[in-house]
Amino acid sequence: MKKHIQNLQRLCQKMEIRYGEGDDLVLQLKQELTALETKKSRNLAAANQNRRKQDINQSTTPLH
Fold it and tell me: Which pTM does this prediction carry?
């Protein structure tokens, strides 16, 4: 999902340059992007809710 959000951010920047910040499509894209980022952060927070701080930071470290 990170790659998806990054692609949408780049698209938003390109549209701002081409059409301006006040364009309806640009504003709608910004709203959708903000909603998607909020959803991602909520999902991440929910997944990490019952984990220890050490486990969150070292989730990719192998145990062996």
Answer: 0.64
